[in-house]
C-alpha cells in the first residue's frame, strides 16, 4: 500500500494577503497614518485584486479596529482620541486583572518559576529591543510581556479577547513614541511582574494608568488630540 499523501496546509487567501499588507503598512512601515483614506477602488487597482477582495480585507481590519467606516466617506485608518484610548486601557486592565487573579488562585503567591519563566523571557526580549533602540521591535516585545501574563491564566477566552486589543495599542504607538528613558521599559516591567501576585488589580491599573499618561503627554507634545 502506498503511503498516504499528506495534504499541504492551505495558504492565505487573497483577502488575508491584502489585509496583511495593509496591516503592515499601518503598524510596521507607517506608510498609512491614522485618518488616511482607504478607498476600495484604489486598493483594487494598486494591489491587482477585485473590489470584493478589497472590501473583504477592509472588513477584517475593521474587526481589529484598525480601520473605521465613515458614513459617505468610505473607510479610513482608525484614530484613537484620548477618550477612546482611556476606554481601551480600561478594557485591557479588566482582562489583565482577571488573568492575574486566576494565575494567583491556581499557583499561589509568589508565582512559581515555571509560571514566571515565559514572562521573564519576554522582558529579556524587551530589554534587548530597547538596547538596540529599535522602537518597532520594542513595541512588539512590550506587547509580548502583557500577552505572557494573560496566557499564564490558561483561559483561551481571556487570551483571545486580550489579543484583539493589541493592534489598537500598536496603532497608537506606531506613530508616537512616549518619553521612556533608555532601558526603563524593561526595568518597569520587571517590577510590574514582581508586584502582580500581591497587588493584582491595583498593580495593573497603576501600570496602565502610567502608560496612558505618557501617551497623552506625547500626543500633546506633537500637537495631537
Automatic annotation (TrEMBL):
Entry-linked PROSITE patterns: HTH_GNTR
Superkingdom of the organism of origin: Bacteria
InterPro entries on file: GntR_C, TF_FadR/GntR_C, Tscrpt_reg_HTH_GntR, WH-like_DNA-bd_sf, WH_DNA-bd_sf
Gene Ontology MF annotations: DNA binding; DNA-binding transcription factor activity
A Pfam family it matches: FCD
Keywords, comma-separated and alphabetical: DNA-binding, Transcription, Transcription regulation
Domain HTH gntR-type: 12-80
Name of the molecule in the record: DNA-binding GntR family transcriptional regulator
